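Customer ticket, subject: "Can you confirm the structure for DUF3077 domain-containing protein?"

Message body: Hello, I'm evaluating your service for our small team and ran a test protein. I'd like someone to confirm that this is what the system normally returns, since I don't have a reference to compare against.
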Amino acid sequence: MTKALPDPPADCLTVNEQLSFEDAQLYIAQLIHSAAATALDCGDNLQPHDRAKIHAVWHLLEMAKTVIDRSIDCMHPRPS
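Agent reply: Thanks for trying us out. I re-ran your input and got the following:
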């Protein structure tokens, strides 16, 4: 008997096993920044009600980026 549908791929995205914690944090920060920029661009031609939703998503992404940026700062404490 043949299957009607093939099995879905196991993982579409993989992470390099050699990726350090610090590099992962920096990459996350860049991904969030790109997502926030994309969200704002998508809202440019929307009606005000829908634009408000995009701005809410943008705000959540900015909050996430702030926390990631802070965690990166904590990895390199400033001398007192």
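A couple of notes from the result: The radius of gyration is 19 Å. Residues 8 and 38 are 28 Å apart (CA to CA). Feel free to reply with more questions.
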